[in-house]
Amino acid sequence: MTVNQLYNDCLLRLKNSGNDDYRFDCDCLFEHFIGFDKVKRITKGEFPVSDKACKELSDAVDRRTQGEPLQYILGKWSFMGCDFFVGSGVLIPRPETEMLVLRADEIIRENKLSTVFDLCAGTGAIGLSIARLNPDCRVYMFEKYDGAFYYLQKNVGAFGLENVTALKCDITDFNASGLPKADLIVSNPPYIKKSEIKLLQKEVLREPVTALSAGEDGLDFYRAIRSKWLSLLKDNGTVLLECGDGQSSDVIACFDGVIKSSAVYYDFNNIDRAVEINV
Ligand SMILES: C[S@@+](CC[C@H](N)C(=O)[O-])C[C@H]1O[C@@H](n2cnc3c(N)ncnc32)[C@H](O)[C@@H]1O
Q1: Atom of ligand 1 nearest to the CA of 191
Q2: Hey, whose CA ends up nearest to atom 6 of ligand 1?
Q3: How far is the centre of ligand 1, averaged over its atoms, from the C-alpha of 213 (Å)?
Q4: Of 8, 207, 243, 261, whose CB is crowded by the most CB atoms within 10 A?
């Protein structure tokens, strides 16, 4: 089969499966499994493709037509300009979370901070990005679940940074002895209400529910951070938290009584995405 024939065949299969992004997905899969980007595909469209490569791509297209996220099939996804290993068992890093990293980076640089905790670390997208941008800062990343911790360790290995530590623990029930206090706690915790989980897109439900679900009102993890982690924050420390659409005032309310100042960060669609609390 030629490059052109194979590409057109895959494009049609993805389109017929009802995939709205079929062209983007086809381009990504083609580049990953066949090694031909758009330019190479157009200029060398008559090249033959081996049976083995055809089969690998065809299996990948099957997985995609059955609703597996593209990122899991590719096995990696870009966040803050770097590739992170991803797969079944870990949340795929979202572009909106980059806002949290950029704000954390500003706070660290302005105040020359030395110690950051990333709670509910998943792939390590937040913690590893902060550590990469701030080599003088030590970043501790905390993750409970085996599936996610596997990818966290894999990404820690791939980044090869000296200033990171990955710890497997439940952030709601954690013994912090031996850890230094943090200047900044960052977290993108689970924040979806239990009743809303079943309303999520089918594809999002391929991601672990333990990365998404946060009790009846979606605030369980913010309350846990307030009750368990503020004693591990230095005086005048900062907590920077991602939140869901419309959740920022409830998140701030979880910290009632300890707040010196707070701020909410909105994305381009005016959706509240992050809350900063100085305690
Ligand atoms: C919304 S995901 C965020 C992952 C990553 N920080 C990111 O932004 O891509 C939440 C993460 O919290 C982890 N998690 C859930 N409950 C936890 C707990 N009790 N202790 C530690 N981690 C937990 C999940 O496994 C998941 O990796």
Answers
A1: 1
A2: 121
A3: 10
A4: 243
List of residues 6+ apart from 8 with CB closer than 8 A: none
CATH topology assigned to domain 3-67: Helicase, Ruva Protein; domain 3 (1.10.8)
Q: Do domains 3-67 and 76-278 have the same CATH topology?
A: no
Q: pTM of the full predicted structure?
A: 0.96
**Angle between helical axes of 3-16 and 51-65 (0-180°, round to 10):** 10
In contact, 108 and 116? CB cutoff 8 Å: yes
Pocket lined around ligand 1, Cβ cut-off 6 Å: 91, 93, 97, 120-123, 125-126, 142-145, 148, 170-172, 188-190, 210-211
Please give the chain's pLDDT, 279 residues, in tens.
Answer: 999 999 999 999 999 999 999 999 999 999 999 999 999 999 998 999 999 999 999 999 999 999 999 999 999 999 999 999 999 999 999 999 999 999 999 999 999 999 999 999 999 999 999 999 999 999 999 999 999 999 999 999 999 999 999 999 999 999 888 999 999 999 999 999 999 999 999 999 999 999 999 999 999 999 999 999 999 999 999 999 999 999 999 999 999 999 999 999 999 899 999 999 999
Q: How far is the CA of 123 from the centre of ligand 1 (A)?
A: 9
In a mutational test of the pocket of ligand 1, which residue from 97, 143, 219 has the highest number of ligand atoms less than 8 Å from its CB?
143
Q: How far apart are CA 109 and CA 134, in angstroms?
A: 8
The residues spanned by each domain of the chain are: 3-67, 76-278
Q: Does domain 76-278 have CATH number 3.10.150.10?
A: no
Q: What is the helix (H) or strand (E) element at residue 164, kind and residue range?
A: strand 164-168
